[in-house]
Model the fold of this input.
Amino acid sequence: MTDQLPPQTTGDDIPFYRDERVLQIIAQVVSVVLIIGFLVWVTLNFFRAAEARNLQLSFNFLKDPAGFPINDPAIPYDPSNSFGYAFYVGILNTLRVSLIGVLAATILGTVVALMRLSTNWLVSQIALAFIEFHRNIPLLVLLFLWYFTVFNRMPSVEDSLIWPGPFIFNRRGVYLAWPRLTETGTLFAVAAVLGVILAIAVFFILRKRRELTGQQTYYVHSSLAILIMFPLAGWFLSGGAPLMVDIPFLDGFNYSGGMRVTPEFAALLVGLTTFTAGFIAEIVRAGILAVQKGQTEAAKALGLNPTQVLSLVVVPQATRIIIPPMISQYLNLAKNSSLALAIGFMDLFSVGKVTINHAGRAVPVFLLVMSAYLAISLITSAILNFYNRRAQFATR
Done:
């Protein structure tokens, strides 16, 4: 007597209302319909409420003259320019303070982290005091501290504080010597920019070739040679004088020439830099400590000095740990720049607020401000996440 196996069912024999795949598809379709329906309901109610309150939602006002000044604009600006142009200047001001702040905070935070790891007790405690001070004080209070107690307490123009350089400090800002292009300097500037672009391209191409073939390509030396030769060639082709140093000088009741940094911009930049550097220092310190001690001991056993151990062994491995939390700090710095409103610097948010007072279009202006901050954050995240993926170890 043979055993009879029960008939096996196939997918076609399962009713659709019990098929897991069909149920998942139905659930997704229902979810999408509900979400779209909710968004449509919210949008329609928003427009009904705006119409009932006589709120204008168009962006036609961007073509009208702004009628308000912007102190320390990144590009030339006049109150007769349009609201759209003023908004563009505000974006440039935000990008200017954000980019400089990110670079300065990264350098300062890394230095403080290395000081914190120092075996010298005094140096380590100074770094600890810096970190704890800036991590436990609100940024707005720190901005007030720098603006009202430091930069607004500078001497008058007649009693300006002059340091070698020259660096001139007074209540109207910081004046410093600044290089400017001469009439023949355009050729030098073009050659320098081409040299930087070509040096970066050669660096990555030759390094990739070395990884694929194993042959020595001298990608560092080649890149440095290009980086030096192109500006040098532009220097000679421009007649040997492509640059001039514009030195500030006292002209009547104020200083002229050079580059002027307003007290508002200086206070915002210093506040953002020191505040963010306190957090970056802890991130860098944690990344360095996360590298296994065996790596350091092996490097010392090979005869590397402490500087080589740090630059060739510890930092490349710590970078992979440091980058992800560092991205968040960079984004926070860009968004925290909106506190410039409290000390009078005209950034993106400040220009938006003044635009609302002049044009009376709160909803369109806030949509523009939010879209601009969102674009800045998404672009920054995309660039840094791309670098983060390239810096990670390849797993198999």
